[in-house]
Amino acid sequence: MRAIPASLDREIVAAIGARLQDVAGTHDVRIAWAIESGSRAWGFPSPDSDYDCRFLYVRRPEAYLSLWKTRDVIETPLDRIFDVNGWDLAKAVRLIAKGNAAAIEWLRSPIVYDGDEGFRDRLLALAGEVVERELIGRHYLHVARQQLKLANGSGSLKRFFYVLRPAAALRWLGDHPDAVIPPMDLPTLLDDSEVGDGIRRATRQLIDLKAVTREMGNGRPPRILADFATAEVERAAHFDDGAAGQHESVARARAVADAWFRAELERQHA
Hints:
The chain is built from 11 helices and 5 strands.
């Protein structure tokens, strides 16, 4: 599977592909999923945004049986253009079972450099089976609160996007009470939620400004968006009151994740 929008620089995309091939050969791993994260995948890039490629990789079965454990992260050199690193599948599955929203977001990215769609769907199905909705809500609530404090202290319009996206994820969860995993990008979160046209319009205007401005500078975000973010954080406070993570649910999630991982390892090396 591959989904590369025309807005991405083709030479940089090719260079990312070369890095991924080098990782696979150098570390003797199979890269099962490689996507773009960060502002480009979240729907609000700047002209000078770097490329945040994230990937999931699988080692040979015997590597998981070794007494001498290796790192479960592979990193490539970081510079002003490239931020390319990935997680071992075992690490990703453990984090998903714990309700880590970042690991799940990688499976929902609209920008895919390379990957097996079946693998993605199987891992999403696992997430849907074991992840506690309350843990996902708590993740976005804590991120929104933290970023709200940072944004208020910095006065940066650019930073406000890091408040707006988790706030929109909280609203999406509120409007989809039977769902667990929100979309990744900000426009889709708002389009799929019951928010007013004024919020969507103000968001689009701010995104358009960021898309053509290398440095947005300081200033107050539009009042309608600041009020929206504050209200959603307050409305989602109940995610801090849940009993998610009880022993029984944790034990079940671990058992299901163990079985899934063993089956997937066999599939990857069949």
